[in-house]
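Supplementary Text 2. Reproducibility record for the structural model of the 203-residue chain.

All settings were left at their defaults, and a single model was retained for analysis rather than an ensemble. We include the record here because the model underlies the residue-level annotations in Supplementary Table 4.
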Amino acid sequence: MSTAAVDAAPPKKGNKKLIIIIAAAVLVLLIGGGVTVMMMKKSAAAAAEAAEAEEDGEGPAKKPKAASKDPKQAPVFVPLDPFTVNLADRDAERYAQVGITLEVADATMDAQIKAYMPIIRNNILLALSDNTAAELMDRAGKAKLAGRIQRETSRALGVEIEEDPPENEEFADEEAPKKKRRKKAAEPELPITAVHFSNFIIQ
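Retained model, structure tokens:
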């Protein structure tokens, strides 16, 4: 009887070790799952905050995207006839002579630009004549004008672009801007990738 009791003891110890190993494995899995859930909740909260900030207009303003350029492909340039316009100065008669070259993403755009040239020239003339001589004198003014010409030319080609809000827009009620802001749709890629000035004379 004593020999049987001694022989039966070792399996009990083995069972205890197995139970401890299983319990430890389950504990590790639970801890890992808890950490994963916490990380997922943090990521979801951060994404929700970013979306809310963008919807309220507090995030970075999105600009229309120009079509992506292929570094292996040479750029395509479409020069336009020079523009001569009266500027918006009220104290004196000022005018500008401007040479413009459009950079496009696709060589096939050349024919489309020529087909829509009357509308393109009209939109560019209106964009030029809205400026004063002082606004076009510095680099920042010219860069701003180039961006507007890019958008106006793309509009002439049939691309739908939202109007830019006035820079001096003011609201009496601080909550008014949040009420008026709506989530904007993704801006389309512009067929005009850049606008280059080949001549710029203000008199």
